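Recall the central idea of this unit: under ordinary conditions, the amino acid sequence of a chain determines the structure it adopts. In this exercise we apply that idea directly, starting from the sequence alone.
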Amino acid sequence: MKLTDINWVANLSLLFAELPLLERPAAARAAGFDRVEFWWPFGDSGRPSSAEVDAFVDAIESSGVELVAMNLFAGNMPIGERGVLSHPERQDEFRDSVKIAMDIGKRLGTSLFNAPYGHRRDGLDYEEQDALATENLAYAAAAAARIDGIIMMEPVSGMPEYPVTGAEAAVAIIDRVIEETGNTNLGFLLDQFHVVNAGGDLFADIEKYGHRIIHVQLADTPGRGEPGSGSGEIRKTVQTLLDQGYRGSFALEFIPPESTERSLEVWAVELQSWT
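Accordingly, the structure predicted from this sequence is:
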């Protein structure tokens, strides 16, 4: 595969954020994307109404884009929550949200589901948190298997209480769930920005875990801007993955510093330089 043949994915939780959420798929299609992804699209509720779910599905279908991937419920992201897998009081809500996510996946053909792990909590034993996370990941994987889906784990940077900060930790959780529960439909989501931002060795991780990667997200560093705006070696990252045989999606998960339109203009110039 050539660099210019890649089918890019727009992360619509960050791109086109100047528009209401349900208008973003159509905006992405108008901008030339035919594949998109979302974080959990229902705010801080793991139990959206049927009407909310239907409206989201309709927005995807009517725009003509494909929903490649979505996050599972992660709690209240704006106040800093990053997952509830390991939080006992949120287990029922998380499992209800998994049923909703799999219904969306079945209706839209979505097969990749990222599962944010959740922060360490004062007063909770870390081993107990990890055991609960294993149970919940197994539950999600079993549900995803029924629609030929895959549960993904990614590293996240910049949050001291988040325990999955590097590729090694993410893959270790995947292996733990496989070994302890027998569920095998789990995979590694390589978020290039988070690996670099956490001080990891991105290319060493690609060499070691390249065969485990099933989805890739990209943003430049520092600042999490569009590729070409920083020193994150985006082109080298993509080429290295292709050379290793990766044929999955490359999602643009960056924060436009001005507007999405302007960032996509910068990105288009960068991409043209790859030819």
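The chain has a mean pLDDT of 94.
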